Amino acid sequence: MTTAEMIKELCEQMNISVSELARRIGQTPQNFNKKLQRETVTLDELKAIADVLGVKFVQAFILPEMSAIKIESS
Asked: In 10 A of CB 74, how many CB atoms?
């Protein structure tokens, strides 16, 4: 699943349009949709999305021995 697909699914589950999400993170819907199409959403934007929707964002590298390096935003 791509980042754009995950964001769209999150919006659907949170009952919010992608355009409204864009506004809440301080972007125009047009600019944010271009970022989704190009898959250029930044880590800071993903954290902002989590913050405005009240969800937790976790990014992790899973090492071969199954330990992980995580970046979390709550």
From this structure: 10
